[in-house]
Design a protein that fits this description.
The protein is mainly alpha-helical. It has helices at 18-37, 44-54, 60-66, 75-83, 98-118, 124-141, and strands at residues 87-90, 93-96. A hairpin with a 2-residue loop joins strand 1 (87-90) and strand 2 (93-96).
Length: 142
């Protein structure tokens, strides 16, 4: 058997701990999603806020609760979406405008394609097992 030679094609991925992979994948998701969303002039947090509003989070407290896993809703994100005329707030209720609904519709297609790219070559079973494993680890740590 030939000795192991380190070089550009050397893959030591199995040597890296799960924490390294979690941070690495999260960073890649953040930067690549921002590139997908850049054509619309928004970032990942804007997308999450649009989805939360479309899903019924129609007040700031409801939006903060829906986005808590991502750091909550920032007033800046809401102000930027409002400046683009994508959301409106009337009598304390936040909703998508027709312009915001149209933009979200375009983004749903782009994000669907993006998510398909992320999971390319990963079976449904592998994906489900990965998510279940990470969920178990999170419960173990909480």
């Amino acid at each position: 058997m030939a000795p192991h030679v380190h070089g550009p094609d050397c893959d030591h991925s199995a040597d890296k701990p799960i924490g390294w992979w979690l941070r690495h994948v999260d960073g890649l998701i953040e930067s690549s999603m921002d590139r997908v969303l850049a054509d619309e002039g928004i970032g990942r947090r804007h997308w999450q806020a649009l989805n939360a509003v479309a899903g019924g989070a129609d007040t700031e407290p409801a939006l903060d609760a829906a986005l808590a896993p991502f750091g909550g809703a920032s007033r800046l994100v809401l102000d930027q979406l409002r400046a683009q005329h994508w959301i409106q707030e009337i009598a304390g209720r936040i909703s998508l405008t027709p312009t915001g609904s149209a933009a979200r519709g375009r983004l749903v297609v782009a994000i669907r394609d993006y998510r398909a790219r992320i999971t390319e070559g990963v079976s449904e079973e592998q994906y489900r097992t990965t998510v279940e494993t990470l969920a178990r680890m999170a419960r173990n740590l909480s």
